[in-house]
Amino acid sequence: MATNAVDETEAAEATTEEKAVKTTESDEVTATGAEEDEAREEAGEAASEQERPSGVGQGAAAVVSAALGVVSLTGSWVGTVAAARQNLIGQLETAQNASVAKQIQAVYGDAWQTTALWAGLFALTALVVGVVTLARPAFGTPGRVQAPWIKSVAWAGVALGVIGLILAVLKYTDVLLGLPSTS
Question: What is the pTM of this model?
Answer without folding.
Answer: 0.64
